[in-house]
Amino acid sequence: MGIVWQGIAWTSLMLGALGLGLPLLPTTPFLLLSAWCFARSSPRFHDWLVHHPRFGPSIEAWRDQGAISRRAKGLALLSIAASLAIAVAARVPAWALALQAVCLAAVTIFILSRPEPG
């Protein structure tokens, strides 16, 4: 079973790393999933990820405080707005736009409700 957890962990870590450069791909959720899977499969890689200078702070902030940094919130909100704009530009049917808008509004409320680390 450990190999399955490691496979999921590495896949989500790669997706999270891609999210650093791709605006519509979220980074933090993939890093959290990766840390969770590594905690079940490899203490060595879990420690490496949690103490990584680039990835570690957001994982620790979430784990310790349920917090999201101001920068991450801003990038998430930009991604949410961009995904809705792309759907509008692609002339997605109105019912699908409405459903997407409701889901994205719920995600926005959740993101904005989280404290900032500190």
Describe this entry's structure for a reader:
By secondary structure, the protein is an all-alpha fold. Helices cover 76% and strands 0% of the residues. α1 packs antiparallel against α2 (28-41), α2 (28-41) packs antiparallel against α3 and α5 packs antiparallel against α6. The chain is globular and about 50 Å long. The model has no long low-confidence stretch (mean pLDDT 90).
Concise synopsis of the structure shown:
By secondary structure, the chain is mainly alpha-helical.
* Cα distance spanning the termini: 37 Å
Q: What is the quaternary state of this protein?
A: single chain
Give the overall form. Answer: globular
Low-confidence stretches: none
Count of strand segments:
0
Return the string of H and E elements: HHHHHH
Tally of helical runs = 6
Major sheet:
none
- Give the C-alpha Rg: 16 Å
- Helix amount: over 70%
Strand content: under 5%
Structural class call reads: mainly alpha
Mean pLDDT: 90
